[in-house]
Design a protein that fits this description.
Oligomer: single chain
Distance between the termini: 103 Å
Structural class: mainly alpha
Largest sheet: none
Number of strands: 0
Helix content: over 70%
Low-confidence stretches: 1-18
Strand content: under 5%
Length: 443
């Protein structure tokens, strides 16, 4: 009695008929990793029948293995490219889906070997680039793009993967950034950001990169593009990805900082200080944000370009004092904070003296008002002294050469303080400190 063959075995017999060479011999070569002999088998088969789907399929399998084996990969430098072409041709020629069983039994190994092979080659090149061989970032990008090409093919067949291969696209973006190919980096990172991707089940932190880098890239472009239309487009994209990043990563303050930079570059001080109000409220324990707010407001009030109209001067100066006191409560010996407090009180005192000097009337009430303003000015200027002295004493404890310029600036402040207070002896003392600074700050 004849044995009944299973459907699967019938398929294999039909496929073996298509592949004229001995598939058992080919399997023996593959198991023994004799890929050169396996290559000879499939090459001979394809030479006889270039459109044999099974022969092309096995070529893709053999050539993928050649590419991954150090002993053989140099013999066929483009082995993966040839393997991919052969696989697609095999699938195209398989009009009756007769390869499906072989693919299933192989778990689609040839095509996935190509995907992982390209990816692993890209990872090796990326790591080489990170170790100092910068040119290898470009090599990595090429290999990752090849992996994505294979991955898109796999996805098109609905065998695996997703519409966006998130990990691979992110890696392509990183490689492009490091290779100096910003246009390509934009292309890949926008795929992730436009899809609102915030991470994988095992990695959330890495996926902040698309939003942060795009925000940075477009802000830089605003300042460098000369075309009005291009600047407008870049500005829209900057605001889009900055807003999106803040929405998706609300605990990350990068987007707050970059908006501060944006308003500062535009000289949009109303929105700059409004943003600072939001930032110090959101991050009340950030000493740096409190100091920066005070410093920016102080510089805006006192060091703006000539002719600049200062809005809400009194309110801003009140903010300077309030913010600096918050910093001083946490870092009482901080040099920059004490220096700025010294300048703050000195300038307030000078403002009061200028108001007094503006009074020319000899009416008793005006004479009294002038005297009161001068007395207030003296009191306020005196408040600058302990802060400036604390900053100086801290600097004098080390006499670091890198601090010399800062030291001389604070000493100059003290000279002006005592000049305004008409204390010639103190002015002489600080003049001597200024003159001797070059000989002391030498280490």
């Amino acid at each position: 009695m004849k044995k009944i063959l299973s459907t699967g075995l019938l398929f294999l017999i039909m496929l073996s008929g298509m592949f004229a060479q001995d598939t058992k011999k080919l399997k023996t070569y593959l198991d023994a990793k004799q890929y050169d002999k396996a290559k000879a088998e499939v090459d001979a088969a394809i030479a006889k029948n270039p459109n044999d789907a099974l022969a092309l399929y096995y070529k893709s399998k053999v050539y993928a293995m050649l590419a991954s084996e150090p002993k053989f990969k140099t013999t066929v430098p483009d082995a993966r490219e040839q393997a991919f072409v052969a696989f697609k041709k095999a699938a195209d020629n398989d009009k009756d889906n007769k390869l499906l069983l072989v693919l299933t039994q192989d778990q689609y190994k040839p095509i996935f070997d190509l995907y992982t092979g390209y990816y692993d080659a890209g990872a090796a090149a990326f790591n080489s680039g990170a170790s100092g061989n910068k040119a290898d970032f470009g090599v990595a990008l090429i290999q990752f793009k090849n992996a994505d090409m294979v991955g898109r093919y796999i996805y098109s067949k609905k065998w695996a993967l997703s519409e966006i291969d998130t990990q691979l696209v992110l890696t392509m973006g990183k490689a492009a950034i490091n290779a100096g190919k910003k246009d390509e980096a934009v292309k890949y990172l926008r795929q992730l950001a436009d899809a609102n991707i915030t991470g994988t089940s095992t990695d959330k932190e890495s996926y902040q990169l698309p939003y942060q880098w795009l925000s940075y890239y477009y802000r830089e472009a605003i300042n460098t593009d000369t075309s009005v239309n291009l600047k407008k487009e870049k500005e829209e994209n900057f605001l889009k990805y900055t807003s999106l990043g803040k929405k998706l990563f609300p605990k990350e303050d990068y987007y707050e900082a970059v908006m501060l930079d944006y308003y500062r570059d535009k000289k949009d001080y109303d929105n700059l200080f409004k943003k600072y109000d939001e930032v110090v409220t959101a991050y009340p324990d950030s000493v740096q944000y409190h100091f920066n707010y005070a410093n920016e407001a102080f510089v805006y009030v006192y060091n703006s370009d000539a002719g600049t109209k200062i809005n809400n001067k009194d309110a801003l100066l009140k903010i300077v004092g309030t913010e600096l006191q918050k910093v001083a409560a946490v870092k009482p010996n901080d040099i920059n904070t004490n220096w700025l407090l010294g300048q703050y009180y000195y300038n307030q005192g000078i403002d009061l003296k200028e108001m007094a000097n503006a009074i020319k009337s000899t009416k008793p009430e005006d004479v009294k008002k002038k005297a009161d303003l001068n007395a207030q000015a003296k009191d306020v200027i005196n408040k600058a002294i302990p802060f400036a002295e604390k900053a100086l004493s801290t600097l004098e404890a080390g006499y670091k050469k890198s601090d010399k310029s800062k030291y001389k600036s604070i000493v100059d402040l003290m000279q002006r303080v005592y000049t305004s207070l008409n204390q010639a002896g103190k002015v002489k003392l600080y003049t001597a400190k200024y003159d001797s600074a070059d000989s002391k700050f030498i280490n």
